[in-house]
Amino acid sequence: MENKIKGNKEKKEIVWNDQWLLNIPEIDVQHKKLFGIFNELYALAKNPTNDYKLDMSRIVKKLTDYTVYHFGSEEQLMQQYGYPELASHKIEHKSFVKEVFTQIKRLSNDNPSDSFKLYAFLMDWLINHIGKSDALWAKYLLK
Ligand SMILES: [Fe+2]
Prior knowledge:
Elements: H1 25-46, H2 52-80, H3 86-106, H4 112-142
Helix pairs in contact: 1-2, 1-4, 2-3, 3-4
Bound molecules: fe (ii) ion.
């Protein structure tokens, strides 16, 4: 899958595209929701509110909670179907969560440009992950 996000200085918003569907409805809905939360972060960075810091921390909390919930759903499905690469997939999820928390710690100031960097990282990772690793287990489940 082509990836135009890396090194993108313009920090464009990325909207969901059905090319990222796995054809596993439960997970596709969750991926779309994750995109939506990432885009809430983008929208706030683009149009900062008076309560920017508080609003951003609310979005970040929602984002991390939902990411953890979503990974749990995927891992449960993979386990249920005996996916042989579950362990390495779990490691990918874990290291992403770790990196997100590291970046969030650096986000403690009021600077929206930091949030754009976080946004680019989140989208870059998610799109790559869906296109490569998630596509593999989806294929396994659907065969
Ligand atoms: Fe995944």
